[in-house]
Amino acid sequence: MDFKIIKPEKKLMRFFQGWDFVFVFVSFLPLFLLGIYLLFSRNIPASIESFSEIIGFFALLTSFLMIFGFFYSFRKLKTFGEKEEEIEAPLLFLLKVYVLTSVVPLLFIAIFTLLWIFPILIKEQKLLLLYIITILIGFTFLLSFFSFFSFRKKLFELFNFFRDENFVNRSIVESQIDFFNIKDYDILYEKATELYEKLFNPDFVSLLIKRGKIKTYNLNKDFVIKFLEKLGDGDEFNLELNEEYGKFFKDSKFLYVFKSDIKDGSFYVILGRKKNNFSSNEVGKMRVFSHYLSLHLRKIEYEDLQVNFFTHTVNLLVMSLEGNIVPKNHLQNVARYSNMISRELNMDEERRRRLYFAALLHDIGFLKIPVELQGIPEKYKLHPTLGAELVGEIEMWKDISEIIKYHHEAYDGSGYPEGLSGEDIPLESRIIAVAESFDALTNEYSYKSIVDENYALSDIESKAGKKYDPQVVEAFIRCFREKSNEE
Predict the structure, then answer these.
(1) In the chain, which end has fewer C-beta atoms inside a 10 angstrom radius, N or C?
(2) CB 60 within 8 A of CB 68
(3) CATH number, domain at 457?
(4) 270, 301, 332 — which closes off a domain?
């Protein structure tokens, strides 16, 4: 058989082992017996009877304090969970509780016995009683210190356990913020793989998408198809592989597989280890992280659908505008020139995307102005504001409404609709202003008399600092001439 389904290992943190309880019980018992003996024995010499009652009382009290301190600490330790962010203080507090309820009272009894009872017993030659008390207190001391060091060791183990748990939980939460802004499958795969390796120490990591075809990064596609068929239905698997089958997963012996449904297919996470099986605690966290990852994958798919819808809607609007309301190819040319300028100015990809679609839709406001009125200057000047209002009503287009509204503003403040100037005009709007003017002068379908490209460039250059942003004009002329030289 190639693999078999197994249960994850139960490597839950065991705060105390059986020997810890033995130490506490054995430490408690001799001190308890000493207290009973000193309080109720009839063989206690009259000379130390009053002292023996005091010591007996404190011995019984200390024995109960030891039990109380241990079980109080044990109960508190069980209440500590992963929600604890700062655990140093409570763990140190429990260590102090244990010391104050066991070591300190025991030390008091030993000092009191040495100073007051031993001298009298030695003087009266009560050696048997002296040996009994010495053995019981010494034995209790020895076991109490063993118990103390064992308890302290457990506290440090617990501290490290919670620290690691908190690190994993915090990393999973923080990763969601990073993943939220990722819009590319490959980048998401790379980031997720790094985090799986960092948090769970697998020897093998693979993320794959099955949607008709298999998309995988480090597994043979033919093998994956057969593997998934054998795996069958289910959304989570813990597998033990035979040696031959493990070679396909970098010699892994144990495999964790998570499956989630996505649009028209499935998303898989596969983690492998060569030696140790994944614990139930790790599986729980891998399940949560993988579920989050599948949600981000769906978000990217949804955003892709939005962009696809957005792009096709814009194209339909451009087709309806060009040749009917604005000159043919005008909107596409303005978008192309704007993209050239944005690249030359090293604008980031998101701003370039907004600029491109704003350039395609910059004249959409003409749809709200009757054709027969568009030649009237007062009506014509309304189209930037009307266009901004149109796109502003659509959630996906809100981020480009301002660009459309101000694309007829002039750098010196002589433009419209608000007479903005200089840097107060959005950079994207200043770019569209230059790109639109150039196309209006050179487009063969323009409603104006066209001129050659060099004359158009000279005309725009002469208006730099007045109508146009000098920086934008310089970038456009530079990239346009470079493009011309290449052709």
Answers:
(1) C
(2) no
(3) 1.10.3210.10
(4) 301
Residue at 12 is within a domain? no
CATH of the domain at 249: 3.30.450.40
Stretch 126-155: mean pLDDT, rounded?
Answer: 72
Comparing 207 with 95, the larger pLDDT belongs to 207
Residue 483 burial by Cβ neighbours in a 10 Å radius (0-12, 13-18, 19+): exposed
Claim to verify: residue 475 and residue 367 sit in the same structural domain: yes
191 and 171 part of one domain: no
- Domain assignment of residue 251, given as a range: 181-301
pLDDT exceeds 70 at position 310: yes
Enter the tokens of residue 313. 């809607």
Give the pLDDT score at 1. 46
For residues 389, 390, 391, 392, the Cα torsion angle rounded to the nearest 10 degrees is: 40
pLDDT band at 308 (very low <50, low <70, confident <90, very high): confident
Query: How many independent structural domains does the chain possess?
Result: 3
Q: pLDDT tens digits for 214-228? A: 677 677 777 877 888
Q: What is the pLDDT of residue 485?
A: 59
